[in-house]
Amino acid sequence: MTGRKRHIVVDTLGLLLAVVVHAADVQDRDGAKVVLTKLLGGFPRLALIWADGGYAGKLLGWADDAGPWAIEIVKKPAEQRGFAVLPKRWIVERTFAWLGRYRRLSKDYEEHPGSSETMIRSAMINRMLHRLEPG
């Protein structure tokens, strides 16, 4: 299958905590398990993870057993029509937009998912360095 999915976990500033890239035919919930497993032991103060509605269902039960964090699904209001910015959901969308500004990440140029993950980490390192030393 062609195409890739990117799963990222970011902090409230939009800075990368974990990333997983896999084939597009893998379910979102399965990809989320992989990226959440990468968080184990690395972020002891992480208590709450906000997630998109695509991650609802069995993942919530798995996460309760797997890690010390709680997952809260950010759902759009039932009365909402069209696009609207959802609270907390925009943080990860903004990070994806930052990543899209890097040429190697604007399209799926990488042959291996590991190479794509490395490019995402490199782009975020660049982003963090520019935050430390603007201009």
Topology:
Elements: E1 4-10, E2 16-23, H1 28-39, E3 48-52, H2 58-66, E4 70-74, H3 89-100, H4 103-106, H5 113-132
Parallel strand pairs: 3-4
Antiparallel strand pairs: 1-2
CATH topology: Nucleotidyltransferase, domain 5
| Cross-sheet strand order for the largest sheet | 1-2
Question: What do the pLDDT scores average to?
Answer: 89
CATH architecture: 2-Layer Sandwich
Radius of gyration: 15 Å
N- to C-terminal distance: 42 Å
Which CATH top level class fits? Answer: Alpha Beta
The strand count comes to: 4
Q: Give me the strand/helix succession.
A: EEHEHEHHH
| Total of DSSP H or I helical runs spanning 4+ residues | 5
Helical content class: 40-55%
Shape by Cα distribution? globular
The tally of structural domains comes to 1
Protein model, in words:
The chain has 135 residues and is an alpha+beta fold. It has one domain: Nucleotidyltransferase, domain 5. The chain is built from 5 helices and 4 strands. The protein has helices at 28-39, 58-66, 89-100, 103-106, 113-132; strands at 4-10, 16-23, 48-52, 70-74. A hairpin with a 5-residue loop joins strand 1 and strand 2.
